[in-house]
Write a structure and sequence with these properties.
Pfam family, one: GAF_2
Organism: Malikia spinosa
Shape: rod-shaped
Order of helices and strands: HHHHEEHHEEEEEH
Number of strands: 7
Strand order of the largest sheet: 2-1-7-6-3
CATH class of the largest domain: Alpha Beta
InterPro entries: GAF, GAF-like_dom_sf
Distance between the termini: 60 Å
Structural class: alpha+beta
Protein name: GAF domain-containing protein
CATH architecture of the largest domain: 2-Layer Sandwich
Largest sheet: 5 strands, antiparallel
CATH topology of the largest domain: Beta-Lactamase
Strand content: 5-15%
Keywords: Membrane, Transmembrane, Transmembrane helix
Oligomer: single chain
Amino acid sequence: MEDARTAAASVSPLPAVGEAVRLHELHRSLSRLGWRLALLSLSLLLLAVAGGYAAQAMNLLPPGSALWLALCSAAMLLLFGLLCLLLRLTIGREVLAALCAAEAGLRHADAESRRRACLVELTARLQQAQSPAELARQLLSGLAHSLSIQQGLCCYWDEASQSLQAAARYGADGADAAQVLVRQPELAPLLLEVARSRRAITLTQPGARYLRISSGLGDAEPAELLIHPIEHRGRLFGLLELASLQPLGDAAGLLIQEIVPVFAMCLDILQRAERSETLLEQTRMAEAMRQTAPQAGGGAA
């Protein structure tokens, strides 16, 4: 769990930010250079025309040669301007492509940083749980806070009975988590199918057949329904069902994939602690019964 925090802290978008800023400055510099070259070309043309007419007025050039000089100067400057424009367009296109790539990298780094921050926050939430039920509630509330989730359900897998037990809900209609499956009978077979196959499924526009997202303002059909198995090291711990009014996206799926092993490890620790506490309590009760048995026998004698 500490590794997740370390990995999250190591992600920084600063290099991408610096690269994007440098490319923006380069693009602005090329734009300013283009305008300066255009003004320089116009100034040289005017200077050549003025010099030609001045030389002709001073009888330094034959009559009519000033016009030819102006035309030649204009042609040369036009060619020079076209070459500069072509160079600017070529370099500018490369700079724009690099700028787009840098901005895409910046967006990716920002999304990665936010995802890592959400992972650290969720890990801290899970570490504070004191029971499996509280752990499930912390997971659903944390995912709802980090993602655009309007409804969620967390179920634990009972290996002995090969069945799912609802542990916690978020935003679902029902007094408790168990009533969610009762009020949504079409959802239970789908959850059981995912549990047995251990493969996550995503349903786009599933319709009201499986569930409807309810709130104080009414209810609506979800845009996306995600059912993800909670599995770690070959053992199935449960299922996670999430419904949203808009597509969750790849970043949300990656966050869920990363938090599921953390959740499974926390759940395994809590379940082991509960089993140890149960065994300890049974041992205490057996010891108390052994101590009271001789006393009861002595009293009867």
